[in-house]
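Hey, I'm writing a tutorial for new members on how sequence and structure tokens pair up, and I'd like a real worked example in the thread rather than a made-up one. If someone can provide the structure for the chain below, I'll link this post from the tutorial.
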Amino acid sequence: MRAFEDVEPGERLPEVAYPLTVYRLVMAAGSNRDFNSIHHNTEYARSTGAAEMYANTSFLLGAWERCVRDWMGAGGTIRGIRGFRMRAFNVVGDTMRVLAEVKENRIEDGAGVVEIAIRCENSSGVTVGPGIVEITLPRRDEEAA
């Protein structure tokens, strides 16, 4: 289990990559009930000015969450997400990567708080963010108590 004391600003979280296949986008749209055709129909997406069908907001937020949760483990909690802003589409046929690093860690009201700077990128650059995911991690003195 990751403890607050093990975290240092500048630490990079393991990158998470998502090849954006038609299957993945259709499953994501169906799983969160976002049936807007821009997320699963190329012709319709192109008729709206997009180059191709593209990932929806819930999928992208889920990608941020997976990156952070895989790194922090079951003992951590997500307190908030700030700065989530779509800058460009994540389209089928591309690979989206989630990149993150520890920006700050501090004790706040006894809790070990960590701010993680995070973003999505694809072959054309930053697509979502940059933003912050704020988490808490258990402190070693809590484990001993």
